[in-house]
Design brief:
- Keywords: Actin-binding, ATP-binding, Calmodulin-binding, Motor protein, Myosin, Nucleotide-binding, SH3 domain.
- InterPro entries: Ie/If_SH3 (IPR035507), Kinesin_motor_dom_sf (IPR036961), Myosin_head_motor_dom-like (IPR001609), Myosin_TH1 (IPR010926), P-loop_NTPase (IPR027417), SH3-like_dom_sf (IPR036028), SH3_domain (IPR001452).
- This is MYO1F protein.
- One of its GO terms (biological process) is endocytosis.
- It comes from Agelaius phoeniceus (Red-winged blackbird).
- This protein is of the alpha+beta class and 798 residues long.
- The chain folds into 5 domains: 54 residues, no CATH class; 155 residues, Methane Monooxygenase Hydroxylase, Chain G, domain 1 (Up-down Bundle), CATH 1.20.58; 102 residues, Alpha-Beta Plaits (2-Layer Sandwich), CATH 3.30.70; 157 residues, Roll (PH-domain like); 113 residues, Roll (SH3 type barrels).
- 33% of the residues lie in helices and 18% in strands.
- It is built from 19 helices and 27 strands.
- An 8-stranded mixed beta sheet has the order 12-11-10-9-15-14-13-16. The chain has a 5-stranded antiparallel beta sheet with strand order 26-25-24-23-27, with no helix packed on it.
- A hairpin with a 3-residue loop joins β7 and β8.
- α16 crosses α18.
- The longest helix has 46 residues.
- The radius of gyration is 50 Å and the shape is elongated.
- It starts with a helix and ends with a strand.
- 24% of the residues are buried.
Length: 798
């Protein structure tokens, strides 16, 4: 039977048999000592066999743990987190030696908890001078001494080891002898009681009764030196390594028992934990069925009671849930107020009080110690954390807003440059549009249901604006042009001829064309705003001041759909087809572009040809400049508003001001910096000069009758404006010549009402002194003693 174990252990079979069935005992008599071989009985031999098996298992387990620790060890010390998983406190109907050992370890850990948590917390309150209610708690050190004391009086484990040593030859009657000796040694202890078959210990978690039957048998984990010598004689190095003890033949004493090993390991564990900062996790089993929603209330109450949670909760309720050193508290919550961010200058105690007052925390919810602040309820701590998170959230939003604005600006600049690259080296550019920001929706489609009705329910709008369409006779007609990812729409207006809405002007869908049906776009090489959209059936001769943006988006969507580029043609002689209608013939029409004067196109129709004359624009290789590249005029740069400059009003009369008719000869605004010196032309309509006699003085524009600023019927505003401007003063002496202005000026084409405190408001015809021009579209000017920003496309340089 021992052949296979001897083979596995690498020892001689006869010697293994000898060491399991007998042992050597050293006896001393006077000055002499001799060794006696004692033969073991069956019960003793079984104990020896079990002790060897348990010793082998324990040492292999320790070897694995040490090997893992060595592999994880680092040359330098670092902070670490360790997890200690132990059995909880056990109370069964019948409790034996195993429950006794487990509950002893729990008593030792509870002692640490008392030392490091309950006792230390109350002592901290005293040291910090905090007022609080004293809580009486049970100190379980007396129970630990009852179990592990060696002398005066000896503890339960010491008595148990003594009984196992004196009655090693037999197990019969050993447990009763143990009970009798316990009654004699600790019978009068206040936390110990005995009964017929065992004893009761008053643990911190409650009373537990232990049955002494089997105590001595399970404690006899005897691993005599004979067995250690046998293992050290193994032919396997691994077996010899598991038993590294140095045996001294002159000092062969009693081997350790299971209880003594547990006591030593528990004390080593306590010493290790006392060097750490422990955090406790109490596990509660709601049932024994391991099923969800199976709640055994009696079992849960039992565990809450025996885990000592009630005392912990009582101490916590009487004390403070949160405490922190002043400087650490200031460091964490400094962001709550401007006075404490980024650092508090002054006494730390006053800084903490300032923070607590800033969140309106009740004074009874916290106390100030000598070096720490104590917060009573978790809700108050949650208030601080929530306010802190809100601050971080608000600052994060500021950063996000700035970043999104930056990305949007980069995106618009990229779109503008991509659009400019389409016309680069092919077409002259306008000074007032090359640096313009792209808006896309110039009609406000979100608030135009009368236009939305022609589109799909959730169709995205890339571009929307009013354009001018020229028919077969070159007659201009206003149309709303809408570009979506798949179609472009031309929407006009017609008078209803019959029905309940007879006589009303209604929107009518004139065209809905798929983008893949567009065969190309034709433009001139000059700075005009004309272009031709070629289709399969008929072409569209259109004019739009936002042609660059429109064509760039059209090219992009066309390429997405057809996987090919949209054909673009640049010539000064263009041709477009017209659709045959009734008796009128179809055929083609010609458009010829010639060099003229000024930046406004002059049209002259003759038969089937339209001649467009316009002055030279910027060179064909002109590119838009990025924001901030060109310096403004006069003074330091003033940051433009975060929103883009509004587009100029469209239509015959918008925002209370009349539209300037085509061909009036007035120059448009200049947003492109030219190297040559700019000259100022005469104003289009000069205000009457002040006379030197007793005649009534001409009032400034703001003192005229302001009724024309209201939104009147079409054409009335222009009449009133002409009347106000055309009024002549009574005859008087020759007025003195007006002094020549020192800087550039501009005249307001439209009324503008400032939407922010740093914006300038003006009416139609107001003359504004230009202080700075910016490529973003926002200019800085001076009017009526006030300086501010205004959109450059609402004015015209004079």
């Amino acid at each position: 039977a021992l052949a296979f174990p001897a083979y596995l252990l690498g020892v001689d079979q006869e010697r293994l048999n000898e060491k399991v069935t007998s042992r050597k005992m050293d006896s001393k008599w006077g000055g002499r000592s001799e060794s006696i071989t004692v033969t073991l009985n069956v019960e003793q031999a079984a104990y020896t066999r079990d002790a060897l098996a348990k010793g082998l298992y324990a040492r292999v387990f320790d070897f694995l743990v040490e090997s893992i620790n060595r592999a994880m060890q680092k040359p330098n010390e670092e902070y670490s987190v360790g997890v200690l998983d132990i059995y909880g406190f056990e109370i069964f109907q019948k409790n034996g030696f195993e429950q006794f050992c487990i509950n002893f370890v729990n008593e030792k850990l509870q002692q640490i908890f008392i030392e490091l948590t309950l006792k230390a917390e109350q002592e901290e309150y005293v040291q910090e001078g905090i007022k609080w209610t004293q809580i009486q708690y049970f100190n379980n050190k007396v129970v630990c001494d009852l179990i592990e004391n060696k002398l005066n009086p000896p503890g339960i484990m010491s008595v148990l080891d003594d009984v196992c040593a004196t009655m090693h030859a037999t197990g019969e009657g050993a447990d009763q002898t143990l009970l009798q000796k316990l009654q004699a040694a600790v019978g009068t202890h206040e936390h110990f009681n005995s009964w017929s078959s065992g004893f009761v210990i008053h643990h911190y978690a409650g009373k537990v009764s232990y049955d002494v039957n089997g105590f001595c048998e399970r404690n006899r984990d005897v691993l005599f030196t004979d067995l250690i010598e046998l293992m050290q004689s193994s032919e396997y190095g691994f077996i010899r390594m598991l038993f590294p003890e140095k045996l001294d033949s002159d000092k062969k004493g009693r081997p350790t028992t299971a209880g003594s090993k547990i006591k030593k390991q528990a004390n080593d564990l306590v010493n290790t934990l006392m060097k750490c900062t422990p955090h406790y996790i109490r596990c509660i089993k709601p049932n024994e069925t391991k099923k969800p929603r199976d709640w055994e209330e009696s079992r849960v109450k039992h565990q809450v009671e025996y885990l000592g949670l009630k005392e912990n909760i009582r101490v916590r309720r009487a004390g403070f849930a949160y405490r922190r050193l002043f400087h650490k508290f200031l460091q964490r919550y400094a962001i709550l107020t401007p006075e404490t961010w980024p650092s508090w200058r002054g006494d730390e105690r006053q800084g903490v009080q300032h923070l607590l007052r800033s969140v309106n925390m009740d004074p009874d919810q916290y106390q100030m110690g000598r070096s720490k602040v104590f917060v009573k309820n978790p809700e108050s701590l949650f208030l601080l954390e929530e306010m802190r998170e809100r601050k971080f959230d608000s600052f994060a939003r500021v950063i996000q807003k700035a970043w999104r604005r930056h990305v949007a600006i980069r995106k618009y600049e990229q779109m503008r440059e991509e659009a400019a690259s389409i016309l680069y080296n092919f077409k002259e550019r306008r000074r007032n549009s090359i640096n313009r920001n792209f808006v896309g929706d110039y009609l406000g489609m979100e608030e135009r249901p009368e236009l939305r009705q022609f589109l799909a329910k959730r169709e995205r709008i890339d571009f929307a604006d009013s354009v001018t369409k020229y028919d077969r006779r070159f007659k201009p007609i206003k149309r709303d042009f809408i570009l979506t990812p798949k179609y472009f729409y031309l929407i006009g207006r017609e008078k209803v001829k019959k029905g309940p809405e007879k006589g009303q002007i209604k929107e009518v869908l004139k065209k809905k064309v798929e983008l893949q049906a567009v065969s190309g776009v034709s433009l001139s090489t000059r700075q005009d705003d004309f272009f031709i959209l070629h289709e399969n059936d008929a072409d569209n001769f259109l004019e739009s001041i936002f042609k660059t943006e429109l064509i760039s988006l059209l090219c992009k969507r066309f390429e997405e759909i057809t996987r090919s580029k949209l054909p673009l043609s640049f010539k000064d002689t263009l041709q477009f087809r017209v659709k045959k209608e009734g008796w009128g013939g179809g055929g083609t029409r010609n458009v010829t572009f010639v060099r003229g004067q000024g930046d406004v196109a002059a049209l002259k129709a003759g038969g089937k040809t339209l001649t467009v004359s316009i002055g030279d624009g910027l060179p064909r290789n002109a590119k838009p400049t990025r924001k901030g590249a060109a310096q403004g005029r006069g003074g330091s740069r003033c940051p433009a508003p975060s929103r883009s400059a509004p587009s100029a009003p469209r239509g015959a009369c918008r925002n209370g001001g009349p539209q300037i008719p085509r061909g009036d000869g007035r120059a448009q605004r200049d947003t492109y910096r030219m190297p040559q010196k700019q000259t100022r032309g005469p104003p289009a309509a000069a205000l009457p000069a002040r006379s030197s006699g007793h005649q009534p003085k001409a009032r400034p524009p703001s003192e005229h009758n302001m009724d024309f600023l209201n939104v009147p019927d079409q054409g009335v505003a222009g009449v009133q404006r002409r009347r106000s401007v055309g009024q002549r003063p009574p005859p008087a002496r020759r007025p003195k010549p007006q002094p020549r202005p020192e800087g550039p000026r501009c005249r307001a084409l439209y009324q503008y009402i400032g939407q922010d405190v740093d914006e300038l408001s003006f009416n139609v015809g107001d003359v504004i002194d230009i202080l700075m021009e910016d490529a973003s579209g926002w200019w800085k000017g001076h009017l009526h003693g006030k300086e501010g920003l205004f959109p450059g496309n609402y004015v015209q340089r004079i």
